[in-house]
Amino acid sequence: MFFYPTRGMDQEMRYWEKRLSSGFMKRELGNEVINRSWKQHFWNGLTSMIKPSATPHESTSRQYPRHRDTPIVYLLVLACIAVFNGCKNDQARHSASESPAERPRKSHAEMLMILDEIKEAGIHRRLYFGNRTIQKEENDIDRLPPNRPDLRFKLLYHVGRRRLWLGDTERAIEHLHDALMLAEAQGWRDSSTDRNDAIFQLGLAYLRLGENENCVNCNNGDSCLLPIRNAGVHEKQRGSRNAIKYFEAFLEHKPDHVAARWLLNIAYMTLGEHPHKVPVRIRLDPHQFESETEFPRFRNIASDLGIATLSLSGGAVIDDFDGDGDLDLMTSSCGLADQLRFFRNVDGSFRDATDEANLTGLYGGLNLIQADYDNDDDIDVYVMRGAWFGEMGQMPNSLLQNDGTGKFQDVTFASGLGDQHFPSQTAVWADFNNDGHLDLYVGNENYPSQLFENDGHGRFRDVAVRANVENRRFTKGVTAADFNDDGYPDIYVSNLGGNNRLYQNNHDGTFIDVAESLQVTEPQSSLPAWFWDYNQDGVLDIFVASYSDDIAYVSHKFFQQPPAMEFDCLYEGDGNGGFQEVAASRKLLDLTQSMGSNFGDLDNDGYPDFYLGTGYPQYEGLVPNLMYWNREGRVFSDVSTTGGFGHLQKGHAIAFSDIDNDGDQDVFQQMGGAYPGDRAADCLYENPGFGNRWIKIKLVGIKSNRSGVGVRIRAAITEGDRSRNVYKWVNSGGSFGGSPLRQEIGLGKADSIDQLEIYWPTTNRLQTFDDVSVNQMIEITEGSTQYSILRLK
What we know:
The protein is an alpha+beta fold. It has a domain of 98 residues: Immunoglobulin-like. It is 25% helix and 26% strand. Strands 1-30-28-27 form a four-stranded antiparallel sheet, with no helix packed on it. A hairpin with an 8-residue loop joins strand 23 and strand 24.
């Protein structure tokens, strides 16, 4: 934004009016208190994005804010990708002269180059937040025409909010304070929308300042846990004190504003003054913050273990990457300058081994999923990038090949996965053609989804068109399992802003969408999804979570307002290939606004529980993450607060795993929001133990894929005079987070496993073992009549 001194005053005012009432500025300076600007270019843009594309390479582009430097960034990114593809095509032409060892090394070097170019282009911040232009706009504040305080107010307000997005909270407060002082100097009435906007945003900025100074930068095990108590109470009180001041001033004029009432109660809570100092007319009953069910408290020990990384939204996988028998951790953060991180488990403590894992220079990634795609008995990782960026998100995903020691090479371009780049945050591994090699289905936003068929020699080819699984909707979650028990995995696709799909495998390399006929198309606005057997009847069910980027959860849960979005769906399998939606009867009645998510077994009773990472991009999206305890398949109980899981920061990838090898599942959660200033510390919730029995099973496929993905496990057990079965299907869990591929199975009070059954769908063979001891880890090789006992560290 520039000031042209040669223009006359009338011309100058027309120039500023045009700049401040059109395009990006108009959206950013709207009079809505809640961040309507994000909603407009997020949801309005999404409306065009979710329309089906006319061709595999054609799309309706999302309408991004047009900064002066955006075309430059766009050209830089396109140039990077063009160079990348040029190198790749050149590689294809000369591949015959390259040794097999040279191709992965070249692929890795090329990925480092393109990610560095994208990082340098600054796409992540310039696209939404304009950090390159903000200094120019700050300099232009004093150059505005002196007789137009309305324009000066709007620019101060606009720049203040952008500083807040970027994490420069103190300067954001200065600009927003100046905007408010200007409004009051002009005698704008208390009912002025502009004035009230500034008051609300000041309250929000000060609340974020308090978060940064206490629960983000000085993180401890009680930080940000709802209800905030004990060590979670803020020691540095300036932020919350001022937040209270401005929220109370705002509520004098808008007493029914849900977001302000909610945040005011939170601010008082951060000071240890809730409920007794909260004005009665605004106060929330403290009992509303308590879970209805007693549940042991899990303690957040991530800081103690050195894995409380400050991140933006991203992915996480927990698995044994170095083959030493204990579980390691890999995380990502979506910032395009944010380094992939690898933490090696060394005798129960974690060491940052990112550099020795050869990951240095590999940036970004909103989600991660793992698999042994090359059947060499180690865990490889697929990294997804570009989600939410539309055309600007056409950046490469990564396939990281493990050498067996926890050292990786990026083989994306050597493997055939780098021919096209589409924005994505979701993918799933499965052996769709039952040839013993894992294939990869990648769900893309506003572009055709891709089904990569594994040739068994380290190469993939996209067969989505022939397979009829392109989807051509805004894909946000994919999961795969054999729902109709015919021996071939099917695909469930969660779409944001359209019907979900259930692709039934036809056994001939093609699929048919049966979602509408089976009535599993909802919610219309959904994100994570997974197959599981929630009621342990041996039949797969489907969970799919709804999403909305507003205050819907709080308004419904705490203010008893009518639901402003769809509820989550739980589709119970009927054993005949059909489903019935049963969420309400299982007491799943919250508006969860889920992003990251996964399921596991907290109490080792054999019934899967689940954890939802919640929130939405705006800073006022402070809502508790939600843990649901499965009560033997009858109902679910919300134990978020009693269990210590109700973290207020934005939750993303989740993994359930027995990370300390004591027999019960702990819970890791990758944390952080979308704005550069909305980082949060990752969490690890330590399981206090429930006294139930368990078994861990590592499968080794021979004719089937090596990790046994898609295998069904049945443990027949007896508890007292009651006999029952516990079922598990081998995978990494839900669509946003990676739990270990070795299976950790709760067995309740059983003294032993009467019969352990392993069904391998690729060969259609059963293995059975009788009278298996509990509380141990075993390895079962496909076709073997014996199992091996593995030592736990």
